[in-house]
Design brief:
single chain, alpha/beta, four-stranded parallel sheet, 32% helix, 21% strand, globular
């Protein structure tokens, strides 16, 4: 049985000190049916370079000016196709078992 498709959206702007730990907390969980979307507001502090290192593991990534956090979230969720959708702030992290637990609950 294929696990539920989970879409996670992370939005950020100038979050270089935090974004890598956030990205890794999602990607290193190795959830088999993950759609990870990252929307960056045009960061100028090195955030983009960090995200680029993980780009091949992201379903979608864009870095462009936006109307703030909620505009960026709307952009991300417009692209999301998962049966379960979530957002994770750019300075937060999931536990390694988070996505699997969510899938089991749903």
């Amino acid at each position: 049985m294929t696990p539920l498709k989970i879409s996670v959206v992370t939005v950020c702007y100038n979050m270089a000190p935090y974004i890598e730990q956030t990205l890794r907390s999602v990607l290193d969980a190795d959830y088999p049916n993950l759609e990870y979307i990252v929307i960056d507001g045009g960061s100028t502090d090195g955030t983009q370079a960090i995200i680029e290192r993980y780009r091949d593991r992201l379903a979608y990534y864009v870095s462009e000016p936006d109307g703030g956090m909620y505009d960026a979230l709307a952009k991300g969720f417009e692209r999301a196709t998962g049966e379960v959708m979530a957002w994770l702030n750019a300075d937060d992290c999931y536990f390694p078992w988070t996505l699997q637990t969510v899938s089991e609950i749903f």
